[in-house]
TrEMBL record:
InterPro entries, per the entry: DUF805, DZR
Protein name: DZANK-type domain-containing protein
Pfam families for the chain: DUF805, DZR
Chain intervals with Basic and acidic residues compositional bias: 82-96
DZANK-type domain mapped to chain residues: 14-65
Length: 275
């Protein structure tokens, strides 16, 4: 308890993102995750470096900031070269204050790593090329529409283009629906038919362009380019440039954004804390 009071009054490393916080607030200043080091009821484990008690679901030690997954990977590695590579990667991540990315190309080793990580209570995100299991018009369009106001994720290249195509094709049934709505109002409010028609078209266009803008921002997150480049969509000639940028492949040098919504993850953490 003494360690916890000292930690709370001085500084701590976020249990989720690992970033250093110098605040008395129990929420991380970066990812807003509620810190559980002062919750007595939850199950705890020992940090693999300093040995202090931390919540069992912590990705990082609140005291020394060690990434528990990196140590777990070192234990699974057998060669000195791979261990040295992990050490160098963790050192670079600490310097850049970024969430570490572990690249495991061997499917068997990846499966073993995920299994061991779950035992240790470490949260693991497997970052593929797209969020959809199999990209296509239907799944990617659903994703495009579902996340139409979400900019806190990545969006894979295939999901972006399939989703854009599917949403554009939706303009056909939407146009038919608008025609039906206008025809219904034709007999009731004949003088306002033109206004109703324009409002319906404007509503669809507003939705389409907002969805396109947010999808472009998520695509830029996936390419690891600045999000403000999405504003090129609204500059004459810039839309072509932005679409060319959207064809670039995924980059994985940072883990700031994944295919998971961080707000949803934080809500789940808060729900567990309430329990």
């Amino acid at each position: 308890m003494l360690q916890e009071r000292m930690l709370k009054s001085a500084m701590f490393y976020c249990q989720r993102c690992g970033k250093k916080n110098e605040t008395e607030n129990m929420r991380c200043s970066y990812c807003e995750t509620y810190q559980q080091f002062d919750v007595i009821e939850i199950e705890k484990k020992n940090c693999k470096r300093c040995g202090k008690k931390i919540p069992v679901n912590s990705n990082y030690c609140s005291y020394c900031g060690l990434d528990q997954a990196q140590i777990l990977l070192k234990e699974l590695d057998e060669t000195p070269q791979s261990k040295e590579k992990v050490d160098d990667q963790q050192e670079d991540d600490q310097k850049n204050n970024e969430i570490p990315t572990i690249d495991i190309s061997d499917p068997k080793k990846l499966k073993e790593f995920i299994k061991e990580a779950k035992k240790e209570g470490i949260q693991v995100h497997v970052l593929g090329k797209n969020e959809s299991f199999k990209s296509g018009v239907v799944p990617s369009t659903k994703l495009f529409i579902k996340d139409w106001v979400n900019v806190n994720k990545r969006m894979g290249r295939a999901d972006f283009w399939w989703g854009l195509l599917g949403t554009f094709l939706l303009s056909i049934p939407v146009g038919v629906l608008i025609s039906l709505i206008v025809s219904l109002f034709q007999g009731v409010l004949p003088g306002n038919v033109a206004i109703i028609s324009k409002l319906c078209v404007a509503a669809w266009l507003a939705f389409f362009y907002v969805a396109l803008l947010t999808a472009m921002i998520r695509r830029l997150h996936d390419i690891e380019l600045p999000a403000y480049l999405a504003l090129l969509l609204f500059i004459p000639g810039g839309d072509l440039v932005s679409f060319i940028i959207a064809t670039l492949p995924q980059r994985r040098t940072k883990s700031t954004y994944t295919f998971e919504n961080p707000k949803k993850s934080n809500k789940n953490n808060d729900h567990r804390n309430d329990k």
